[in-house]
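Thread: quick sanity check before group meeting

JM: Hey all, I'm pulling together slides for Thursday and realized we never actually wrote out the predicted structure for the chain we discussed last week. Dropping the sequence here so it's in one place. If anyone has concerns about the input, flag it before I start.
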Amino acid sequence: MTRLIDHAADRGVVQHTDLFLRNRGTQPITRRRYDALWTRIGKYIPWVAAQQVTTHWLRYTTLTWVERTLGYAVARAYAGHNDRGYVGSTATYIKADVYEIATTLTAYADESHPLAPR
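JM (edit): ok, ran it. Output follows.
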């Protein structure tokens, strides 16, 4: 996270909504660009190629860990899923708050977060 924050500062990010994962021409990075990056990484790190690591793979494995460790409601909120569309009747009753999300990030990244209880 520290490296991402440094990268964002280098890219001139001012607000939390500013986008900074962009190419040199300031266009947002596309899915194809991410795929090309993972292919290049796989040439140097064999397990990346063997496991077929992609950005989606990272999201999937992260959310699986969150769900198994902290529960469905927290995983759903951590993923940024909203309440639109059918997600099962249980989702109507269970919700995770911002403090649970901050605690999840603290547990997963092993870094502190100002909203997570100490």
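AS: nice. Residues 54-118 form one domain. Residues 3 and 9 are 10 Å apart (CA to CA).
JM: adding both to the slides.
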